[in-house]
Amino acid sequence: MFGLSAFITPVVVAETTVAVTTVDETQQAPYWQRSAAWMAGSRDELSEHIETLGRRLDSFFSGQEVMVDKNKSYIRMRLGAIWKERYGVENDSDIKFRLDLPATKERYRIVIESESEEDHSLEESNRPALMDQSSPSRESVSAAVRFVSGVVKHWDTDLDIGVRTRIPLDPFIRGTAKREWDLDDNWVGRIHQRVSYFHSNSFSAKTKFIFERPLSQKSLFRHKTELEWEKLEDQLAFADVFSVFNEIDDDRVVEYQFGILGSSLSNTHIDDIFVGANYRERLYKDWLYLEVIPEILFPREDDYEMTHSLTLRLEVMFTKH
User: Fold this and answer.
1) Which of 102, 241, 249, 293 could be cross-linked to 259 through a Cys-Cys bond (beta carbons 3.0 to 4.6 Å apart)?
2) Rounded distance, CA 320 to CA 96, Å?
């Protein structure tokens, strides 16, 4: 017993001595040094909170881009309807899938999907009520080999070479570059750039600038500016959207939006102004969701006359987290 105590006691004393010395050194550091360390720690913690909150909200609403880190394969089925003032009720159901096949060392992968970012107009990408409206351009499946370049000078890049399976076949190539950075103690900025060439409609380019900051532990403010240029139509479309996300609890989130959509090149004009909310609730685990989207639209084609709409959707997700 004495022998065991003799081995334990020095270890405890040594640990205690080191701990006391560390605390003393910290306490003896200059005030400005301690303040700088506290500010740096608080800034890193807040920046991480912004990123985590933003990604969680994106995942909750989109159910695709940040759904999983390594493999993004999924099937998403939506059953819904949209009521539009003066137009009545329209079907809003759709099914979407992506098969993501990682390859050796994940330097390249095969991606097969029912639709891609190019299949959505700028209006559809920014108005929740239109995000899954059917379109003739989506009556095909695209398959691509994605070459993942990794991080190059703070940019996350990849290159897709593939074909859209329609008649005739539509080969394409597209490159994507993304970057995220901390602007100050509160703001985080993101930029997303994509350049594409499809044989059917030539070149296009899309750029997104996103700035966001937390309003509280459960709320996030986001400002997104998006530009899209298409060579075939020789037109530059733009969207400017302000959003406030409020995480009610772990199962319920609501997004409030105000947005302006327009186009510019030969002449600049505003096509739509909209105000809306997107309420999304997880009904069961991570695969059954309910969406309720009331919206007020001021379309240019109707001389900006106010138009109300209400969208209801039930979403089923099939994916492995």
Assistant:
1) 241
2) 16
Consecutive H or E run containing 164: strand 155-164
Q: What is the 8-class DSSP label of residue 64?
A: S
pLDDT, tens digit, 9 for 90 and up, residues 211-249: 999 999 899 999 999 999 988 777 899 999 999 999 999
Cβ–Cβ under 8 Å, residues 138 and 114: yes
9 occurs within a structural domain:
no
Give a yes or no: residue 73 inside a domain: yes
Q: Report, as an integer, the average pLDDT of 285-312.
A: 93
Give Cα 227 distance to the centre of its chain. Answer: 16
Provide the number of structural domains found in the chain: 1
The owner of tokens 């605390």 is 23
* Helical ranges in the chain per DSSP H: 2-28, 31-62, 122-126
Give the range of the structural domain holding residue 87, as residue numbers without chain letter.
Answer: 44-94+173-318
Q: What is the pLDDT of residues 187-218, one digit of tens each?
A: 999 999 999 999 988 899 999 999 999 999 89
**DSSP output for 75-144:** EEEEEEEEEETTTEEEE--EEEEEEEEE-GGGSEEEEEES--GGGS-HHHHH-GGGTT---GGGSS-EEE
Token pair 């009720």 is found at 89
Residue 13 has pLDDT above 80, yes or no: no
Range with the largest mean pLDDT of 11-20, 23-32, 50-59: 50-59
Is residue 12 domain-resident? no
Which residue is associated with the tokens 């933003």? 54
Residues 76-112 as b/e (b if ≥16 CB within 10 A, e otherwise) read bebebebebeeeeeeebebebbbbbebeeeeebbebb
What CATH code is carried by the domain that includes residue 189? 2.40.160
What is d(CA 200, CA 39) in angstroms, rounded to the nearest whole number? Answer: 53
pLDDT reading at 16 higher than 90: no
Whether 37 is covered by a domain: the verdict is no
